[in-house]
Amino acid sequence: MPQVKIIAKNFMDMVAALPALKLDKLYDNTFICEAVLRSLPPLAKKYVLQLLYIDEPVTAKSMEDWVLTDGVSKHRVAIDRLIQLRVFLEITDRKKETSYRLNPKFQGNLQHYIAHGGVLPRESMSSSITVRLPTAEELDSYALEQWESFLLQLISSSQPEKTTSFSSSMMKIFQQGLLSLRDKEAPKLTESGFQFLLMDTNAQLWYIIREYIINSEVRGVDSADLISFLLELSFHVTGQAYNASTLNEIQRSAINDLAELGLIKLQQGRKDNWFIPTKLATNLSVSLSDSSSRKQGFVVVETNFRLYAYSTSKLHCEILRLFARVEYQLPNLIVGAITKESLYTAFENGITSEQIISFLQQNAHPRVCDRAAPSVPENVTDQIRLWESDLNRVEVTPANFYDEFPSKDVFEGACDYARDNGGLLWEDSKRMRLVVKAEIHTLMRDYLHRQK
Amino acid sequence: MSVLKKSKKNNKRIIVWKLLSYCFFKYLREHLSVISGPVTVMDSAPSKQYSDDVSLVMVLLDTNPFFWGGENTTTKVSFSNFLNHVISFLNSVLLLNQLNQVVVIATGYNSCDYIFDSSTSESLNVSSGNGKMPALCSKMLQKLEEFVIRDEQLSKENSPSGIVSSLLSGSLSLALCYIQKVSRSGRLHPNPRILCLQGSPDGPEQYVAVMNAIFSAQRSMVPIDSCIVGVQHSAFLQQASYITGGVYLKPPQLDGLFQYLSTVFATDLHSRSFLQLPKPVGVDFRASCFCHKSTIDMGYICSVCLSIFCKQHKKCSTCGSVFGQANPEVKLPTDRKRKTIDLNAAYN
Amino acid sequence: MNYFTNNHVEERRVAEEKEDEEDEEGNENDMEAWERAYAEDRSWESLQEDESGLLRPIDNDGVQHAQYRRRLRNLSAASAASRIQKGLIRYLYIVIDLSRAASERDFKPSRMAVVAKHVEAFIREFFDQNPLSHIGLVTIKDGVAQCLTDLGGSPDSHIKALMGQLSCSGDSSLQNALDLVEGYLCGIPSYGHREVLLLYSALTTCDPGDVMETIKKCKRSKIRCSVIGLSAEVFVCKHLCQETGGSYTIALNEFHFKDLLLEHAPPPPAIAEFAVGNLIKMGFPQRAAEGVVSICSCHKEAKVGGGYICPRCKARVCELPTECRICGLTLVSSPHLARSYHHLFPITPFEELSLALLNSSRHKLQKTCFGCQQSLVPSGNRPGLRVACPKCKQHFCLDCDIYIHESLHNCPGCESLRHSKTVNNIE
């Protein structure tokens, strides 16, 4: 069962994990090269550009001269990444000196790009055929709506407002790990499910896309094809219409799924079908790089446990409802309070205090972050932790109970033995009873046998 | 202009680069291993920007016809060749990050104007109609051609004598206005920087205006990079890069210009704190005098308005104050104990 | 309670302009009202609900108002000074009243803290605008004036000294402070402008002798004294300012105080009788290349790295500005001087284009701002106001107008035209 990975750039790790042959095949496509380049750390990008017109291998030593002493660690990260993605090929010569050169396919594609500029993957359709295209705002809100309804459906499959075309088996795969699906029981959000909700949109998107790609092999689709199509898609122009007939079989089946996620909008004309990529799609290659396009925070927590969330999103409201009491809602403002009761329900659902705190901190409104004080007041974070530890006042340890010792000596010997092994939990020397942790039960038994 | 039409064939240049980049590369390696010590890099901390390496590059392109059409063509590249390098550079900046933005401003002899902006939708949607020409290239060259023709028409037929500078102050001012617009447009905006590709000599009459622009750039933390493609060094740009924390470079071999541009000037502001970049080979801090507009290294300063003169005058031509008895070497501080005037030490 | 007798005219003009102002809701103030809440009290009052129930900030007059006022000042300054003479070499003593009155809490957190905060900003701004000038700090405490820092040009040393001395007690004494400062300012060169800026919290002065005599003495020494009061108008301060040619203003609140203080940063008009003009010989050294080894004349030892070379005797010095050890030439860096040149060549204020004109001849007008390429065509909530440079006739948006006049000090239009006089319209 796949575990939820919090880090968005894992998608590139996935690309890196592809076998060398497949990876080289991917680099046939200019767009893949471009996307891979853009996903690299800044320093690595620089190196690629610097070596773009150098055909000879460059020794690792001379590359180290390029950086200042402060940048050595960054340099190493960059080089590792480049080798991992087979952008740099490592060559070791007779003197055991390492040198690097660019992957020739990658190099060729990028040289072409530099000389000829970026070309679009396919021609957009002329406006005479596509009568009315949605405006940028319409498209954005469409994408957001699709994505949120998908998410809502994902987390609360019990009350679907709008069913998607994803087969229930597909949905189940997405839900795996996010929801605990037990028969006859309403599905509950697991810890990783909550973490999933905490991620920003791009990261969530990648999680889903990643599952989608992994799952593709089962459906008999080559994952490399799917990856290259997705990356290619991100180079289309937002809001332009592209003819669906230019797609191949695999791609055509994929776009229906992608439309459900809000990546593209499908429209039908008299003769042709076309698809319009939304911002989510064109941001795919952006989100590959780690820190870019982080979402704006929106939550303000006050010391009196009141919580103000400047958001119009229903999803945000749902997330806040998981651990706070929502008091009232204006169109762009959600006001709530963090109460003991609301937190207890959250804890019961397996959400930890740390997750809640990190959610509040990560989504703190930028104005709150700018202040020197912690973004969530300390008394609030402390109280959330205290309430959690309140619940866990009784600690359950599996243990064994021993009594009816034949003599005081045996009893005390047993006590000492248990203590030495770090397993003694309780002793009553008057009535010669003791409780020992279950894990050393066998040791205890052996010991007591020896005593006999 | 015929030069422009030639540039449309972007053949052969890759071969040239391959040959030259290796030479350059060796040069750079030797060059860099000599120098040590910290680089002056501006702190670009503001958190309201995208990730660290998203850049907005304002390229100021010198299109002065008197420079490109001058006689000393043996020492430098032709304009078409130069454009090839620059367009490749623009492509590579756009390649590095999807959010990168490039704006090109032409610095002419009589005027300055925007000729390319990668953020406007029209520049993106151009379908490469004829197939041969890259979209960026065609759009930009077309506007450049219009600009050069218009620029030419503005100059009355009297060919100027003496120094023929281009209007650096104008294009710097335009670039700064544009950067202001970008930085007030929203919370997330790319890291701006200016790159001057300058060939013509400095125009001393622009001294005050250029300095004003430099200080404004310094205040808004915009580094000004300069790449000199002309014969002489530019004192203006040396000061500009020094004051704003940009990089000043006069490539010794202009045939490999692209390699210089991509190695040095494509570096985003964030990476500059980790990379070895060319150090200034000295900064020309000479000023222009107000009376003859000539560059001087010693002169007289009016105590009322700080105007600079190359000779003694009875009366200040700027502020009109009449000078008392000429007292050529007044010590600024009366207090003799203090030998150094710690004026503005922090602003240096 | 009209403290604005001197600013009366300006106030009225502002009031008139405000009506025009209301049309132009600046885009730069799109900060949410509650975001500003941490800075100002009663922020909830500046919220309003729009027709769809969204909370929106009421148009924030304050910020625009201040911007506009600064613009107005530029306007009047430019029109008044047909011949630009500014006292650019200034010797300014800032006298800070740290008597008991400075601990009053009508400014938050206290008058003293507010004064210290804004003096810091002022010192930095002052050196930015007056490159060859000097500042000294004096405090009044327990009826005694004490010199905190000597006249000097390093902003950081002043600020450090000030921050270390923040406590207040006792009475205030105007006479003691003036006597002390007058003593210091007597010795400066004749071409320097002598100024005192008092930040006065108290309503009284406790003097050892006749303060009027001291005021006369200041007048004789050509010291221009200005006062910014933090409580209410005091006759003796007003008299001092009138006699010595300074300005007297009273701060209404913190923002007003900041504005009043920063008004003292630009150089004042030079008054011929106050300072004698002089030509000073100076050198503009070049900076040597990085990594060059040379013997430094100030430390008498070999140094690596960029130093400055005296143009007359070619000796190397480490820092600017200084005096050459070998030949005695005053060495300054020319950028230092250039920082003040925008005072000498101010750009003409742009003319606002009336909407009537825009409507009548829309087809001929520029579509975008010449500076930043922003669209000037009116659309939706943007009224498309524009200004034009009277010289080059290019049109600019309001944001560029402010930027050009307050920071850039160049008109991009005029700078982009070699023959700006012969060409009336580039189109």
Question: How would you characterize this protein structure?
Answer:
Chain B: InterPro entries: TFIIH_Tfb4/GTF2H3 (IPR004600), vWFA_dom_sf (IPR036465). The complex is a heterotrimer of chains A (about 450), B (about 350) and C (about 425). Chain A has about 450 residues and is an alpha+beta fold. Chain A contains 21 helices and 15 strands. Chain A is extended and about 95 Å long. Chain B has about 350 residues and is of the alpha/beta class. Chain B is about 35% helix and about 15% strand. Chain B contains ten helices and ten strands. In chain B, helix 8 (about 205-220) links the parallel strand 4 and strand 5. The termini of chain B are far apart. In chain B, about 55% of the residues are buried. Mean pLDDT of chain B is about 70; it is low at about 1-50, about 125-135 and about 325-348. The radius of gyration of chain C is 25 Å and the shape is globular. Chains in contact: A-B, A-C, B-C. Chains A and C meet through loops of A and loops of C.
